[in-house]
Amino acid sequence: RPAAPSPRMVLATAGGRVRAVPARRIGQIVGRLGAGRMRKGDDVDPAVGIDIAIEVGDDVEPGQRIAVVHARSEDDASAAVDAVSDAVEFGDASAREVIMSRVLLG
Predict the structure, then answer these.
(1) Model's pTM, two decimal places?
(2) Which of 5, 23, 90, 103 makes an SS bond possible with 16, Cβ 3.0 to 4.6 Å?
(3) Is the separation of the CB atoms in 17 and 60 below 8 Å?
């Protein structure tokens, strides 16, 4: 893809296990950067977007890169970094993992 002039890393502000990377919210953030159409006829900018570097279930340390935002301006990049940071959910082992451990291990 063409290079955006303002790439910015998104760093984890806390550590823990990734519990959610909400696709709808990430898609809305990418749309606000200009990578998608909000209305028929809108232009699409192929240089902007977000590269997600984590998956649900990953263990993340504070300061670890969780994504890279590619934006046309510093203001757009800053807003997207904040939005991605807010969207990604961290926590301890999920209730499902605890239940599965108890079922499998007794």
Answers:
(1) 0.82
(2) 90
(3) yes
